[in-house]
Amino acid sequence: MSIDYFGEHPxxxxxxxxxxxxxxxxxxxxxxxxxxTKEGVSAGIIVETEAYKGPEDRAAHSFNNRRTKRxxxxxxxxxxxxxxxxxxxxxxxxxxxxxxxxxxxxIRAIEPYxxxxxxxxxxxxxxxxxxxxxxxxxxxxxxxxxxxxxxxxLQDPPLWISERxxxxxxxxxxxxxxxxxxxxxxxxNFPWRYWIDGSLFTSR
Length: 204
Hints:
- By secondary structure, the protein is α+β, with helices and mostly antiparallel strands.
- Helices cover 14% and strands 28% of the residues.
């Protein structure tokens, strides 16, 4: 099943991820995020992102070129997975920026696209389908993305991103301040959060 779905929805090219981080954060909107687990394949349409511009961004883990075991992956090539834990949640980021310039794009919300039942199983007791994936910790639970995905190339299963599906090729993009970074000085006001205008699956 994973091989067939990977063939029908091949990964974005490596060159796709070589965009400027702010541009990449917007380009990822509408794209399909896939995850394969032993339970099956599930996928969602990316509807909200946040850009983090590393060395000059106080809200970024890699601010001032902070190089730790956690941030090390961001100093490498773009197009790989940066996951980290926050409280009980795993958050999923796409590494961006050139080598040795540690930047990333947080995937903040998705719209369920494939295998809704599996996502419901992982996110029980949700009153509406919108609550399953309208946040960075929610979407990773729904898709089965974990800390084990850290450093994974988005060119191969079990985790990859493919182009926008039919019907999601034209939409308006809104921008505004990022969420949950109140202690980051002037960076808290940077309008580096992007979302699909009118989507019912965004975090706000």
